[in-house]
Amino acid sequence: MKILLIQSDPDYLDFLHRTLGERHYALEIATDGHTGLAMGLHARFDLILLDTHLLRMNGLDIVRRLRQENDSTPVLLLSHFGDSAAKGLYAGADDYMVRPCDPEELLARVYALHRRRTGGFNSPSILSVDNLKLNVAEKVAYRDNQRIKLTAREFQLLEFLIKNAGRVVTKAQILEKVWDNSAVCSTNKVEVYINFLRKKIDRDFEYKLIHTAMGVGYLLRSGL
Predict the structure, then answer these.
(1) Higher pLDDT residue, 38 or 88?
(2) Domains and CATH numbers, the chain
(3) Half-sphere exposure of 114 (CA within 13 A, CB side)
């Protein structure tokens, strides 16, 4: 796994380097926000691990810029005590930890994000329903061979729907699987992201794939 570390604190950078280095991950390092953003946008990484407090540019702004550029690389945000976890998640981070981190928990979070990105053990790399296809390994979606740009969270939501194609999933199930049941998220967040997906997946096509089960949740099914 190739990881980009963006960290301005030399002591904590040393801790992260030693902890991740023990697992023989390939690490690239940026010691300020501007450099880290440039590296994140111009090279491919399996994971970006960055601090909220950085020189020249803070971590939240980096995450926002990455998502604005449709970069879906998983981001693990290291926040400081008193920082708002909600701000990091709403900015587009996939997970967060409060410093100081337990080394084993940090490694577990990194592993979980990577497994989620690659689809888990022995999972198919291509998922499809009708003319909608998801390349899980590369985090790319197509409908009728047209590439659809999705944020990391939109892709996770669509992946969950397509894995449960033909079955109704509740908002609570979506929160648990896509947002890890985060206390900072509400069912309104699910509704917002379902609308985002509908605009990208269904709006330009005659038949729709994403449907509402009134009072229950949502399902994705073939339109044919």
Answers:
(1) 38
(2) 2-118 (3.40.50.2300), 126-220 (1.10.10.10)
(3) 15
